[in-house]
Design a protein that fits this description.
single chain; Aminopeptidase
Length: 179
């Protein structure tokens, strides 16, 4: 599947390209970003970035760079890990520290939610966040997801067990809220 280009009021969600490596490493390489995510290693190197960009062009998953349209600055990433047989996907995102608190995660996640339901015809989109990252929960609520529960000590991150908060939305719920 080729990566879509999604435009929002302030953002362009687009396929990663190798020229993103220079901007990507310092943004994703911050410990404060890695500590709130499952799959981002720390330290994050140029090799990690090149491997990541090389891997995002295959399969059913959608992983997009978040670029601020004004100035064309990379500020984060958003993606859907798609399970086609079950018609659902896991939403994930991160935003670089200089761009926190400006609504970019909400704007990007909302656009990808719409893409997942309208273009991929998914039935359910879900996400989770570490309990100690309530800002991520607010993003999920703002885009129409509801809290579905907690998975206690579900993940071991850097030697410590972490609770996950689970959120989800069904296409039927999303469609009702949209109209």
């Amino acid at each position: 599947m080729s990566a879509p280009i999604l435009l929002t009021e302030r953002l362009k969600l687009r396929q990663y390209v190798m020229s993103d490596v220079e901007a990507l490493v310092p943004l994703i390489g911050e410990r404060e970003v890695a500590v709130t995510t499952l799959r981002i290693p720390h330290p994050y190197t140029e090799v990690d970035a090149r491997d990541f960009i090389g891997s995002v062009v295959s399969g059913d998953d959608v992983r997009l760079a978040i670029e601020i349209r004004e100035g064309q600055k990379l500020c984060g990433s958003v993606g859907l890990k798609v399970e086609s047989a079950d018609e659902h996907a896991e939403l994930g995102y991160w935003i670089g520290i200089p761009f926190w608190g400006q609504g970019y995660a909400t704007e990007a996640a909302g656009a990808l939610l719409e893409y997942g339901f309208e273009m991929l015809k998914l039935n359910r989109i879900f996400a989770h966040h570490f309990k100690n990252n309530p800002a991520s929960g607010r993003v999920l609520e703002k885009i129409g997801m509801r809290h579905e529960g907690e998975m206690r000590e579900h993940i071991k991150k850097w030697g410590k067990f972490v609770d996950l908060e689970i959120y989800g939305v069904l296409r039927s719920e999303w469609t009702k809220k949209k109209t």
